[in-house]
Amino acid sequence: MATTSKNQNCSLLQTHRCKYQPVLPDILKKGPCFVKAKNGKATQSVADQAAVKKMFPNTYGMPEITFTKGTNPAIGKKAVKVAVVLSGGQAPGGHNVIAGLLDGLKKANAKNKLYGFLGGPSGILQADWKEITPKLMESYRNTGGFDLIQSGRTKIETEEQLAQALENLKKNKVNALVIVGGDDSNTNAGVLAEYFKQHGSDISVIGVPKTIDGDLKNDKIETSFGFDTATKIYAEMVGNICRDVNSARKYWHFVRLMGRSASHITLEVAHKTHPNITLVGEEVLAKKMTLKQIIDYLAGIIVARAKQGKNFGVVLVPEGLIEFIPEMKSLIAALNDLLADHEAELANMSGIDEKKAFIISKLPAKLAALMQSLPAGIAAQLMLDRDPHGNVQVSLIETEKLLVEMLRTKLADLKKAGKYKGKFSTITHFFGYEGRCGVPSSFDANYTYALGYNAAALALNGCNGYLSSVRNLTRKAAQWQCGGVPLTMMMNMERRKGKDKPVIRKALVELNGEPFKQFAKKREQWAMNECYQFPGPIQYFGPAEVTDMITYTLRFERANKK
Ligand code: FBP
User: Could you identify the atom of ligand 1 that is nearest to the CA of residue 216?
Assistant: First the structure.
C-alpha cells in the first residue's frame, strides 16, 4: 500500500525526505525543450562486432548522443504517452527515476502522460499498467523500493512475446518505453528496440542503468544507480560487526555480500570498513585459485592471528565468488547446460537425491567427483533453477558456510600437526536484500532523478535503443553531463542457457584498476591489525561532505579521467 506524506504510516524521515528536491544537472534545468541532441561518431560493440551487428541490423553502430544547450520547442508541441517498467532486482532510487521521468515529460508538455507497467516486464506482456500522476508520485519521491509499480525478471524473448509487447504498446498508443534495469534487462531493451524498428514501429526504447551490483558501467556509464546506497548500508552493518568483533574478541565473522558476479560491492565495503580478510572473485579467477588454495590463504591468516592471541576477525566474501573458482566455474557451466538440456526429465524427478544422481551420471568424471565432494546443501543449491536470463542464483548459495566448513577441517588437521593452537568460533551472515530497498542516499536521489529526466529528453527526441547516461559524477550534480549511449555498443556474445547470445558485457573488478590496487596495498596491514572503520548510517541531513559522499570506487576510478 502506498503511503502519503500526510499519512500516519509515514516515518518522520520519509516525511522530511519527501520534501528533498534532487539537484538537476544545469543542462537539464530548463527542461527537455532547451537541450539539443548532438550526435557523436558511429559506435561499435565492445567485442564480437560481426555477430552483434548481424543480430541488430537496425540499431547497431548508432552514434553516442550528448545534450548541449539549445532550443528544441518542437518536442513539446505534441503530447506523448511514455511507459516505464522496473526490471530485475530492486535498487535504491528507482522511484526517483520515475519522478525525474514524469517531471521531464510534464515540463515539456503538461499533457504528456506517464504509465508504469506493473510487476516488471510481464506487465508489458499483460498490458497491466497504471497512470503515474503527479499526485500519485508525490509520496514516493526520494523513497527506496520499487513498490510504486513493483519489479520482475521476466525476459521478453520469444517471437510471440516480442510481438505481444509491440501489439500492446501500439494498441495503447505508447510513444516510448523506458526500461530500468541491469545488464540483462538492458540487453532485453536492446532486443525490443531492434524488434520495434524491424517491424516498422517508431516507438523508442530507452534503458536506465540500475543495479546495486555496480557491474553495469563503462567509460560512458560511470556507475549504476543503487550501488552508492547499498554499499553504504552494508558498510554500516559490517562496520558494526567489526566493532563487535573488536569488543568481544571471540568470533570470526564470515559475511557474504550481494553482487551476483562482480565483487564491486565487496571491494567498496572493504574500503569503507577495513576488514581482516576480503576475497575478490576476479583475483581468484586471475590467479586460478582452487577451493583448496582459497582455504589455505584464509587458514594462513587465521593461524597467524591466533599466534598473536587473536582468535577473531572479519572476512568478506563476495556472493559471486563461487563462479570465479575455476573448478566451480566449470561445474556451474556444465550444470547450466545439463539443467537446460534435461529440464523436462528433471522436473519429473521427485527428490533432490534422484536429481543429483542423474546429474552426476551425466557429468564428466572430474566434475562428477567435485560435485560428489561438496557438502550436500551446497550441491543442492547449485542445482536450483536458473533465473529467466540463465544465471545461477548465487544469492541462494551459502558460500560463506562452505568456506567455514572446509576451514574447520583444515584447522583441525593443522591442530593435529601441532601447527595451530587457536580457537575457531564462527558466525556467518549474508547481507543482500537488506541493502536493495534502502532510502536512497543524496547521491543516488540526485543521480536517479537526473537519469529519469534525461531519459525523458531522449524519449522526446525519438532516440531508440539508447541507455540514459549521466556523467562527470565526481563533480557537483549541477555539473553532470547528460546524453545517451547506444545499447549495442556495450554488447558481446556470451553463452546463456546452452546458446550463444548477445548480452551487455558485465564490468568486473579490474585487477589493474585503482579500487583493487589501493585495496591490495593495504590488505596485509588490515589482516594482522585492527584497522576497522565504522562508517555508521547514511546521513541525509548535515554537512555536504558527509551527505554527498561518493563511493571509493567512483573516486578511484575517475581520479585519472577528465
Ligand atoms: P539486478 O542485476 O537485477 O540488479 O539484481 C542484482 C541482485 O541484487 C544480485 O545482487 C543478486 O544476486 C540478485 O539480484 C538476487 O536476485 P533475486 O532478487 O531474484 O533474488
Answer: 2
Instruction: Write the pLDDT tens digit of every residue in 96-111.
Output: 999 999 999 999 999 9
pLDDT digits (tens, 9 = 90+) for 352-392: 889 999 999 999 999 999 999 898 889 888 988 777 767 78
**Fold adopted by 54-226+440-504:** Rossmann fold (3.40.50)
Residue 259, phi-psi category: left (phi > 0), alpha (psi -120 to 50), beta (remainder): left
Distance 436 CA to ligand 1 centre (A): 9
Cα 125–Cα 390–Cα 484 angle in degrees, nearest 5: 65
Which pLDDT does position 7 carry in this prediction? 52
pTM of the model: 0.94
Distance of CA 177 to the CA centre of its chain: 21
Angle between helix 365-373 and 326-341 (nearest 10):
100
- Our mutation pick for probing the ligand 1 site, out of 260, 319, 398, 506, counting the most ligand atoms within 8 A of Cβ, is 260
Residue 336 pLDDT: 87
Distance CA 485, CA 507 (A): 16
Could you say which DSSP state residue 24 is in?
P
**Topology annotation, domain 228-431+513-558:** Rossmann fold (3.40.50)
